[in-house]
Amino acid sequence: MSNEKLFEVEESPVALKSFLVWMLLAYLFALAVRYIWVDWASQFPDFFWNGQLMINTNDGYYWAEGARDILAGGHQPHDLSPVHAPLAMATAFLARWLPVSFETLILWMPAVFGALLVVPVMLIGRALQLNRVGFVAALLAGVVWSYYNRTMVGYYDTDMLTIVLPTFVLWGIILAVTRKRNRYMALTALLMILYQWWYPAAYSLNTAFLVMVLLYVLVFERRELYNYKLLLFMLLGLMPLGWMEDTVLILAAFVLFHFGGKRVNRLVWPLLVLAVAAFAWLGGLAPIWLQIKGYLLRQSVTGGGEGDLHFFAVSKTVREAGKIPFEIFADRISGHPAVFLLSLLGYLMMAWRYRAMWLALPMLGLGFIAMMGGLRFTVYAVPVMALGMGYLIVWFSQRLAASLAGESSQSNRMEWGVMLLLTAAVLYPNIRHVIDYKVPTVFNKNEVAVLERLHKVAGRGDYALAWWDYGYPIRYYSDVKTLIDGGKHTGDVNFPVSFALTHPQTASANMARLITEYTERNFRQERNGSYLKQMMQDYKVSDPEAFFAMLEDQEFKVPKKSREVYYYLPLRMMGIFPTVALFSNIDLATGNPRREPLFYSLVPLGQKGSKVIFGGNLWVDLKEGTMRMGRQTTRLNRLVAAELNKDGTMRLEERNFDPDSRFFLVYMKNYRRFLLMDRRMFESTYVQLFVLRRYDPKLFEPVILAPMATVYRLKK
């Protein structure tokens, strides 16, 4: 038996009607699995707002803001609303025509569109005359860990089509190289444009597809002129001219080659050379380098060069951009390491038998980059590995059925039985993950209520000062501007906000006014560069530390106030407050970190007399003011008991112990938690204004005092 026959999968023709029924079943299965989260989340009233479950991804509020503003007919200048983003435009279009609420629409869009992955996966199977392979692969691809996580109900983001569209591109390429018809060249190029329009970062993967087709042609079919026409069409789809211009070029080329007869084939090489030259001249390689630099050449600080300021790089705090162990890598791609290895084997068998499957290597390779580039990339390998698993299952089912039943009438039924049983086995770990993956909504209803109240108080041109995690939800619910958000959070813009949250109130207020006015000034004047460098230049200071010392002066002259600034201080920030502090806990002149601030949120495990017992061999004697950490016993500087009153104010009881100690302990009675911190964190604006509700009336005015969040207006 030849190697080709050894890996052969025999398929009987499947009528189009039956194929479409299979596709519908795979789609409904993917949707049904996604309902599991809805069933769980519906048990919690705090997850509902306006009678509907809220979404569960921060970035979703960015696109929702854009759709909201499109429907409203306008937005504020420089509010960064994505009114021209494809997802926002698509959402606004659907909101106008579908009889569902806006909240329902953004909740279900990711599941409805994300489940469409089954379509190109099954079409690839059909293009290779492997209908059952495509069906099994579709069942798996639609619910695999990483793909489910990014297309579940409520995960309202561009991810809903970010894998669907390149899988369609792969289908178009496979059709083109196997069928060799002009329509498939145009189809492939147009799908590339659609993918890039939806997700601009798709440029890199589209380019990788182009390179892979070139390698395929050089290795397997270098004498086939059609393949060079395909490369030409793909280059036209990649031209950095704009989607409309690229579409016109592709349609013109299609008309030329489809209706021009054989005599126009002599134009293929001149046009291909011209397209390559235009691609290079227009800067076609620049976006690819930016992607590589952003994910594979990460640095812990940004900046450099004489006179530059060095800021903390946000990529060091983003889990998605970090290296991951093999087990997590395999789980996210296939659901289990064993399934992953079998899927890889199946893919190699499939590629050996059907060489067009080598064209899937760009998606597979991008998924495998996750081992060093971060878990967000694993999702790209999902459809390719699912096809490999589908191929292996069908191949094994046929071999087993043939060995047990031979050529009898029972063989086909046995083959289907084995195939479905093995499919259920590889689906199980993924369904188990879906059941266990209990993701809460971004905010709960009490937090949203605070933002709705802020919306009634603040103007659309005012700013909310908050950490970037909360930027998009604040803009959506309160309709105000923010200084940083999920897309605008580089080190130079994070530093001032971190500074304002982690420093005493005078310095915080001065920085808040400065960063707000400089942000607006840069928008008006279309200026770029570090805000802090501009401030230091304007105040004629070259040393960052000298400038920060100036901010501690109550008489420091800030720019004239052009708008209000509201501090949004939520309870949930307590869990990430040490990370927030990292961004301003750095020597800007050298990039060296300072002594790490101390801040722990502790839940007591028990109490013996006046001693409160925590985990990790830690206890505190509230009466004596002593603290035991491991084998070391030390004294507290101060103990503060904070109890929230019904009107939102705080009743404080303080006891002083050792003025030389760096340890401060705050007991938040209403939340049944203790905060252990050093002096810097104790004196920070966040702790003073939210935890203790203790504010300087010359600088701040309380606007909303709620248990889940507080809002203060900056008076300066």
How is the topology of this model organized?
Layout: H1 3-6, H2 16-41, E1 48-49, E2 52-53, H3 60-72, H4 86-97, H5 102-114, H6 118-127, H7 131-141, H8 145-151, H9 159-162, H10 164-179, H11 182-198, H12 202-220, H13 225-238, H14 243-259, H15 268-281, H16 286-296, E3 301-302, E4 311-312, H17 326-334, H18 337-353, H19 361-368, H20 370-373, H21 382-405, H22 410-436, H23 445-457, E5 463-465, H24 471-478, E6 481-482, H25 491-502, H26 505-525, H27 531-538, H28 544-551, E7 565-570, H29 577-582, E8 599-602, E9 606-608, E10 611-614, E11 618-621, E12 626-629, E13 632-635, E14 638-644, E15 650-656, E16 664-668, E17 673-677, H30 679-682, H31 685-691, E18 700-705, E19 709-714
Parallel strand pairs: 5-6, 5-7, 14-16
Antiparallel strand pairs: 1-2, 3-4, 7-19, 8-17, 9-10, 10-11, 11-12, 12-13, 14-15, 16-17, 18-19
Helix pairs in contact: 2-7, 3-4, 3-24, 5-8, 6-7, 6-10, 7-21, 10-11, 10-12, 11-13, 11-14, 12-13, 12-19, 13-14, 13-15, 17-18, 18-21, 21-22, 25-26, 26-27, 26-28
How would you sum up this structure, described in words?
The structure is a single chain. The protein is an alpha+beta fold. The chain folds into 3 domains: 11-436, no CATH class; 445-582, Pyruvate Kinase, Chain: A, domain 1; 599-714, no CATH class. The strands form 5 sheets. It has a 5-stranded mixed β-sheet with strand order 6-5-7-19-18, with helices on both faces. The chain has a 5-stranded mixed β-sheet with strand order 8-17-16-14-15. Helix 6 (118-127) runs parallel beside helix 10, helix 13 (225-238) runs parallel beside helix 15 (268-281) and helix 21 runs antiparallel to helix 22 (410-436). The N and C termini lie far apart (84 Å).
